[in-house]
């Protein structure tokens, strides 16, 4: 069978790679894909926003299942288009994807469903938001309600900074209409955890856990990025924590979506803060986390095509899903300057040597192929991922592969997985 993966990041490369391992999958198409996907699969040059052309591709190439990677096409209704055309597609409808696409909607739904989350107020008028923040004497978090390419959240320890942020979002409209409504939320303290669950409308299957590293610098310093690395499993996700998240977060929000005429099918990603008062939701996403899913899929021992099909077909309750107990570590190699401005088009060396190292898989993110040369084309360039006998071994293998890859301006964090290594040492 032929499958189509829509997107061009590390997440999509990892999904395509895992789907290709299925006995049922004979061919993988990627649209638009990146250099790593081109080397292993067939890239078709169609952008993720050209829904009509993607539907046409799936139809003419007799694609058995299309998997949508990024949030933007999901929020724009690509799944609705594929379904109307009678095509099988993995991902939530536009109505269900609002859980990520509209943070004000997500907050209201969490309130109705009694899901633990930070106290928040929603503002549609700039003056009201200003007035409210001016009364605050502690830090707040200002969030553009719409999609802002991961940049719409500002954690402000000082309310004076929050005033500047709402001005940028609501008055200056730096994120366009995404900032027409803002959510002002209490600042939560604790360790963050990403929980990803497959949902087939009814049944919830929580994937093995992973921990992201959002800040650009070692020791979680500097500005937030899309994620500088991940490890799986995450020791902070104890069975108790996971049971609580399933009971207090996932079950009620999936029920609330169904009651709101937006039954959820696809992967639901809960971004959580593990506070002293228990886990609280920071956000929901309607897609796989990146880089989390790169580390998670390294450990999947089951057939991903069957798993995603079970979600589409509503048979997740019968799925048999197994994980490799060995841990995995993914280290993002980024372009100098990221998450600010950076240069593109830098030649990448050492990919073949890294690919030959035992236990290592190099997922491509921002890469492009120019004739026979692979060059950088984004902020996060590669997700260098390794399985190990234990977490320290997985880290060592991933960084050994990073060491043989070079491009001008390349940098990584040096402490990916250290939290898990410390947890393992003290256990
Ligand atoms: P979000 O897109 O809502 O997950 O926000 C992006 C990042 O901002 C999160 O991963 C957290 O690091 C941080 N963040 C969001 N909301 C809060 C909050 N209420 N308190 C503290 N940090 C937050
Ligand atoms: N790694 C964070 C995200 O995918 O949103």
Describe this structure in words.
With 427 residues, this protein is an alpha+beta fold. The chain folds into four domains: 2-94, Rossmann fold; 119-186, Dna Ligase, domain 1 (2-Layer Sandwich); 191-318, 2-Layer Sandwich (D-amino Acid Aminotransferase, Chain A, domain 1); 328-426, Glycinamide Ribonucleotide Synthetase, Chain A, domain 4, CATH 3.90.600.10. It is 34% helix and 26% strand. The chain has 15 helices and 22 strands. It has helices at residues 10-20, 35-40, 51-60, 71-75, 78-84, 94-101, 103-113, 126-134, 159-171, 239-259, 292-298, 304-313, 351-355, 391-404, 418-426, and strands at residues 2-7, 27-32, 42-43, 63-68, 89-90, 120-123, 140-144, 153-156, 182-186, 191-200, 204-206, 211-212, 215-217, 221-224, 229-232, 265-275, 278-285, 328-334, 360-364, 367-370, 373-376, 380-387. The strands form six sheets. The protein has a five-stranded parallel sheet with strand order 3-2-1-4-5, sandwiched between helices. Strands 12-15-18-22-19 form a five-stranded antiparallel sheet. Helix 1 (10-20) packs parallel to helix 11 (292-298) and helix 7 packs across helix 10. It is globular and about 60 Å long. The model has no long low-confidence stretch (mean pLDDT 95). Bound molecules: adenosine monophosphate and glycine (GLY).
């Amino acid at each position: 069978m032929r499958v189509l993966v829509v997107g061009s990041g590390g997440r999509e490369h990892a999904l395509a790679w895992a789907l290709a391992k299925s006995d049922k999958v004979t061919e993988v198409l990627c649209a638009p894909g990146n250099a790593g996907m081109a080397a292993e699969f067939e890239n078709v040059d169609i952008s993720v926003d050209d829904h009509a052309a993607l539907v046409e591709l799936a139809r003419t190439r007799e694609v058995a299942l299309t998997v949508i990677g990024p949030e933007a096409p999901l929020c724009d209704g690509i799944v609705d288009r594929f379904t109307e055309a009678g095509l099988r597609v993995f991902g939530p409808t536009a109505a269900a994807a609002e859980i990520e696409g509209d943070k004000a909607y997500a907050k209201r739904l969490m309130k109705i469903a009694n899901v633990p989350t930070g106290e928040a107020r929603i503002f549609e008028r700039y003056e009201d938001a200003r007035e409210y923040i001016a009364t605050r004497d502690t830090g707040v978090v200002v969030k553009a309600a719409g999609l802002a390419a991961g940049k719409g959240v500002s954690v402000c320890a000082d309310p004076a900074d929050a005033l500047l942020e709402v001005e940028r979002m609501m008055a200056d409209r730096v994120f366009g209409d995404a900032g027409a409504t803002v959510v002002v939320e209490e600042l939560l303290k604790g360790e963050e955890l990403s929980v990803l669950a497959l949902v087939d409308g009814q049944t919830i299957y929580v994937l093995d856990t992973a921990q992201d590293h959002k800040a650009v610098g070692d020791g979680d310093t500097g500005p937030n990025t899309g994620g500088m690395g991940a490890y799986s499993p995450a020791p902070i996700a104890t069975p108790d924590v996971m049971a609580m998240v399933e009971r207090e977060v996932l079950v009620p929000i999936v029920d609330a979506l169904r009651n709101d005429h937006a039954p959820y099918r696809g992967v639901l990603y809960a971004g959580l803060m593990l506070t002293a008062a228990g886990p609280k939701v920071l956000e929901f996403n309607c897609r796989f986390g990146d880089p989390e899913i790169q580390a998670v899929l390294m450990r999947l021992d089951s057939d991903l095509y069957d798993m995603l099909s079970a979600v589409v077909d509503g048979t997740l309750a019968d799925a048999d899903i197994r994980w490799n107990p060995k841990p995995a570590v993914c280290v993002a190699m980024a372009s100098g300057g990221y998450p600010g401005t950076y240069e593109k088009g830098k030649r990448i060396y050492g990919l073949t040597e890294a690919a030959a190292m035992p236990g290592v898989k190099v997922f491509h993110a921002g890469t492009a192929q120019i004739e026979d040369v692979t060059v950088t084309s984004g902020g996060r360039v590669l997700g260098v991922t390794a399985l190990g006998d234990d977490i320290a071994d997985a880290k060592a293998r991933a960084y050994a592969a990073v060491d043989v890859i070079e491009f001008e301006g390349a940098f990584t964090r040096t402490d990916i997985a250290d939290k898990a290594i410390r947890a393992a040492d003290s256990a």
